[in-house]
Amino acid sequence: MEYKYPKFTPEMKRTHTILIPNMAITQFRLLRYALTYDGYKCEILGNCGSEVAQLGLKYVHNDTCYPALLVIGQFLDALNSGKYDLQHTALLITQTGGGCRASNYIHLLRKALEKAGYGYIPVASLNFSGLEKDSGFSMTIPLARRALACVFYGDLLCSLRNQVKPYENEPGAAEAMVEQWVARLGQTLLAGKGYTAHEMKRTFPAIAKDFAGIGVTRSPKVKVGVVGEIYVKYSPLGNNELQKFLEQQGCEVNFPGLMGFVQYCIYNMGEDHVLYGGAGGIKMGTDLFLRYLDGVERAMLKAQKNAGFYAPGPFTELTEKPAGVISMGAKMGEGWLLPAEMVELVQGGYCNIVCAQPFGCLPNHIVGKGVINRIRALYPAANITPIDYDPSATRVNQENRIKLMLAVAKERLSGGAPEAAPVTAEQLAGGAPEAGKTPATV
Length: 442
Ligand code: SF4
Description:
Blueprint: H1 12-15, E1 17-20, H2 25-37, E2 41-44, H3 50-59, H4 66-80, E3 89-94, H5 105-115, E4 123-126, H6 141-164, H7 173-190, H8 197-212, E5 222-228, H9 230-234, H10 242-248, E6 251-254, H11 258-276, H12 280-306, H13 315-318, H14 337-347, E7 352-358, H15 362-367, H16 372-378, E8 383-389, H17 395-413, H18 425-429
Parallel strand pairs: 1-2, 1-3, 3-4, 5-6, 5-7, 7-8
Helix pairs in contact: 2-6, 2-7, 3-4, 6-7, 6-8, 8-12, 11-12
The structure holds iron/sulfur cluster.
């Protein structure tokens, strides 16, 4: 008999607690306030540990993408915990709307819930692409605006924290500043404010100024950028606390912002029109939307720079980075965004890069691991290591591989191995590296 899954109805907004898997921690904490303002009761899940992966393995096929396995395992672990009134609990999962399996996680989750005896728990979808149209959870324009503000604020807080923490005079000062601002922004969002472009543009410099006021002692540190599949890039559960590990190794880390991924998804909808034709209205709509985001993004980057911090270029510049590396038609998984972020990081001085990818994730192996030699050929200073994450990959193995990359980085930092100057954007656009030039290896 066909399984009829329960719908998340509009009435459940008042009666149900929605559980949300964690990914980008600061951005998602803020998102909770935006959802609360909209009338939803929700909780961001923090449960982790090996039980989560084991539960995922038990109820999802082990060939399934690692992020799906972890997210489903985390949900089941939470439902098993006894903490929730299961008759009044719902689950929220994100869907990218892309051609990759990420758009199908919701079906895998429903199947796993049914197998685990939780088939009556409704699942709602968080997406910007109109998937799951009959759901009582709807991405209204006001909610979308608030959610976007949460991503901007979260990205800014993370970027500033990451540039202050390794150098702070008083341990914990940067983290405390993040807490302070999350609480303050949370109250602002709960009051129905803080999300318009005007309000964000006014708030960004105040945030940057507060971080600039933290006492630091700047000394040369290994700078490491992290790119990869969106979930394992950000989620400490997915990447075995990669950020914590890198910071323990004395590095300054840079995770390109989540807004880049949001813009990438929107941009691709318009790019489909450029590449394949179709309704011109979509392209016009996505261009307008991107222009709005661009205005806010530039204000955020300017606030960072004016306060003395590093800020990458805006998204419009990011779209130029893949030239000579990969086609803009590469849109499965993190697509052209992944190499673009690698180039951006190298140009910004974050030459050491961890490319985090789920084992067996074909799209990201192509656009991640697959372009590393090309980027090394164009940028001999690039020191990139791809790291696979899956339930059978041990943390020790992953950390040892990263330590090898860091050994090269530390040698370069101490002047032991010269760093070649990056090529210019014109050279980058010029096609293949010179004949006979061997790609630099680590
Ligand atoms: S990007 Fe990779 S991990 Fe994510 S859904 Fe696609 S195949 Fe799976």
